[in-house]
Amino acid sequence: MKKQNKIILIGLLIGFIAIISMSAYLLLNDGSMNQLPVVSNKKVISQQSHDITSDAETAKTQAPDAAITPPPSLSEKTDDGKSEVNPYVSYPESLFKILGVDINELIEERDTFQSTMVHVEWMGRINEILKNLDPEKKDAIIKNHTSLLYIKDKLNEAYLTGKIDHETFKKALADLMKWHQRTYESILSGAEYEALFEIQPELVDDTIDALIAQTPEYSFILNESIPIDEVKEQVQGYKLEEVNSHFKKMILDRDNIGKQINAGELTLEQARATLNMSQQVFIAKCKEILTEDEINTIFGSVTALESGATQTEAPAVLGDSDELELGFKIENPETSIDNVSEKIDKDKIEDIKFFYQQRANERDELISRLDAGEITPEEIENISSEMDMAFEENCRDTLTTDEYQLIFGTSENNESVTPAVPETQKESTEQETTTENKANDEQ
Question: Are the CB atoms for 103 and 154 separated by under 8 Å?
Answer without folding.
Answer: no
